Amino acid sequence: MTTSPIPTPEVAEKVFGDRTGLAVRYVEHLATSGIERGLIGPRERDRLWDRHVLNCAVLGEVVPADARVADVGSGAGLPGIPLALARPDLRIVLIEPLARRVEWLDEVLGDLGLDIVVERGRAEEKPVLRRWEGADVVTARAVGPLARLAGICLPLLRQGGAMLVLKGASAPDEIARDAAAVRALGGGEPRIHETGAGVVDPLTTVVEIPRTGAPRRNRRKERR
């Protein structure tokens, strides 16, 4: 059974510029093999542009120039691949533990010709942490609550770097609930950004948490 092509929104060129063609091919991968191999739900096919690709790409509005970025729990390359397409100045690694997803990511990146590293493993595993610590930015989407994410993402960051987490409308409540845990893990004051004005509706909600210190348990060890 054949399926109709997914229309490319006019706003895509505003976000991706001369890489719009690559973004279109990425969406085609998501809509075909991504669904067939279980990386994307079939009901998401008609929402791939607005709910997934553009929604993730506008994260680039709050990422510093020339940053080293680690995308944790990348799955189908979200947000890492749209971010790379929108911001070719960034150096990105996609960290993903599941072999079938890593295989798909390697295939897609090979087809798109993007210079992105795919790391199979969990960000909290020591070998992965040793290879990728010192990042300027760590991104995550639909991975878990802020307290858990802080424990995974903050150790990958350099001091002064920031985790940028895509969240929904409940972000303020989640920040309030997990504030103490985030501070204990070395996180600073959270900040909420709304990105994608004129591109996505609703806007993309991004929670920024800087790394301002080491986890408290590590500081106790250092004093001994």
From TrEMBL:
GO terms for cellular component: cytosol. Pfam families: GidB. InterPro entries: rRNA_ssu_MeTfrase_G (IPR003682), SAM-dependent_MTases_sf (IPR029063). It comes from the Bacteria. Its EC number is 2.1.1.-. It is found in: Cytoplasm. Keywords: Cytoplasm, Methyltransferase, rRNA processing, S-adenosyl-L-methionine, Transferase. It is an enzyme of class 2 (transferase). Gene3D superfamilies: Vaccinia Virus protein VP39. S-adenosyl-L-methionine binds at residues 73, 78, 123-124, 141. One of its GO terms (molecular function) is rRNA (guanine-N7-)-methyltransferase activity. The keyword rRNA processing applies. Specifically methylates the N7 position of a guanine in 16S rRNA. Belongs to the methyltransferase superfamily. RNA methyltransferase RsmG family. HAMAP family: 16SrRNA_methyltr_G. This is Ribosomal RNA small subunit methyltransferase G. It comes from Pseudonocardia alni.
